[in-house]
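Annotators were shown the component list below and the corresponding predicted structure, then asked to write short factual statements about the assembly.
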Amino acid sequence: MEGLREEVAEHRAPEEDIDSLFVNRWSPRAMTGESLDEAQYMPLFEAARWAPSSYNNQHWRFLYATREDEEFELFADLLIEANREWAEDAGVLVTLVSKETFDHNGEHARTHSFDTGAAWQNLALEATRQGLVTHAMQGLDYEAAAEQLNVPDGFSVECMIAIGEHAPPETLSDELQEREFPSDRKPVDEILHRGGFDD
Amino acid sequence: MEGLREEVAEHRAPEEDIDSLFVNRWSPRAMTGESLDEAQYMPLFEAARWAPSSYNNQHWRFLYATREDEEFELFADLLIEANREWAEDAGVLVTLVSKETFDHNGEHARTHSFDTGAAWQNLALEATRQGLVTHAMQGLDYEAAAEQLNVPDGFSVECMIAIGEHAPPETLSDELQEREFPSDRKPVDEILHRGGFDD
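Structure shown to annotators:
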């Protein structure tokens, strides 16, 4: 397959001829600590906007802070220490939140998390295209995030996302360096079932 | 912006220079009723495989039936009538299921739906690249799906996905024809908040 980045090709062998963007997207921890400007990160939110959602409700809400913003520290403080260690070198931290109900009738929207995951993936893919890296984390204090970022009732915190410039793995601690490679995936037959679920 | 398809450009004006793939992906209902072969649909599942997930758990499971399969009727029967009306012209129907727990410790995985939404988005984008259309639905009988497709405890049914060849809108009922266009999105300032959530 053409188009795979060198570090990716060492670890990942897609079985079908797909857009290399999907395989080139991975979740590094090593970020440079450099600032990003709006022209770099706004296209990521723009890509996210166009994700599909139930009744086109667009459940996703992106709360963010750049490392120049006063609130950056507040966002970083929400992370567990193992994430904060590397994620404080992000250019932008994003708390991704979803609205649990439909705008048109106020009823519970079963797919609010699922649809918001689609928006996150668009963000991550556009970042890859722009030469930036992203890493989503569930290692954060969800309750503190809801409280300190004024998330209203009826909205769920989904995850924190670090967006940054990729740094060499050597900038990480020894322990994190060992995990700094594009992860492989399960074989297709573990996740794909023709007909019903396997017995 | 270059690269937007004609029917999309009439309805959608992205505000940033992003990959046109995100904007060209939309959710038509008009499908031709033609069969798809494995070479057409396997890359979609392959793209989905490479989505990110918490602890790389890869919560997604794809249960599918092609229109040649005995089980196709079973899948179509799970849909509400308003979806079945058009979705029975899909080439492949997919019931997307997520595992609610981590493989490595059996504990609840908070982001199983969110992560599975990321996999769905990869599938939809690769379909767009291949010239196929996809449409995800929450209009189905979730309980019947779990039961009839042998979905084990600890797995959630997320949605049904129709994959097919795009047909002219005139093949739809008058009512559905009126809705057969690429939907627009909320303005950025409704979904993007710098710092905490707006008061």
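Statements collected:
1. Residues 34-171 of chain A form a domain with the NADH Oxidase fold (CATH 3.40.109.10).
2. The helical segments of chain A are 6-9, 20-24, 38-49, 72-77, 81-87, 112-129, 142-148, 174-177.
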